[in-house]
Amino acid sequence: MPNITTPDGTTIAYTRIGSGPAIVLHAGVSMPGSSFPPDVVQPLTEAGHTVIAIDGRDTGGSTRYDGPAIDLGAVMGGDATAAPYTFHDMAGDALAVLDDAGFLSAVWVGHSMGGHVIAAVQATAPERVDGMVFFSSAPGFGGGPTPEFLELILRETPADRDAAVAWRMDVSRWAMGAHWDEVAGRERAEWFVDELGWWGVPTSHLAAFLVGLPGVTSLTPDEATTLIVFGDEDDMAADGSELAESLPGATVLELERYGHWFPEPGPWPDIADAILGLTR
Asked: Is-contact 270 253, C-beta < 8 A?
């Protein structure tokens, strides 16, 4: 797996598959780039694109930070310096990965937290954006994390593998909603823990959410090359609808009876086709 080292010494790992114009995938809270399943990646590569999936900070093969050392109280009090990094830092990581992969621009796909990262990319370097896909993500909209979501992410570091697997299952159970399958969910959680090094939701991701996107007052993408994807049973579906209303020229893919993340098999080929629609 290729990786880069940023000026602050952070290692960012990524995968690169296929050839042709770039499509960059950035997953959500605690999820590495390999979270995106083959059912969405393969149609993109078969259509003649290079798919670059980034392990954001604190995920996969990228640098991990010391969660207990982060003073969330200070961050909540307005001290952005108490957060080890921000979405703007993660956007800089993503742009550096694009440089390393040899591309000037890309279609950017951000799931959940990843949508905030790509919003920062668009604000920082709009000339490097060929398209934007906000997937279960609506930066700047909504009232913030729900109590249920906060309960999921504000937990003590797992004491052992079983605790890590149980936590990962709880996160997936919330994200999958009615499509949750206990057996498949456990297998997936064990894969996350054993193969991807998942060990709980990083406190630093919550800190980045608390800092937000200072200096970005509104999203200003090219609406003709913007796609908004969300499930109508997602806790944050109303935020996706608000984002869509603010960008009337964007393409909207609202998926009935789905939540924050989707099963396999599921609507992934439809999502891939909608992404490809931005490139045609």
From this structure: yes
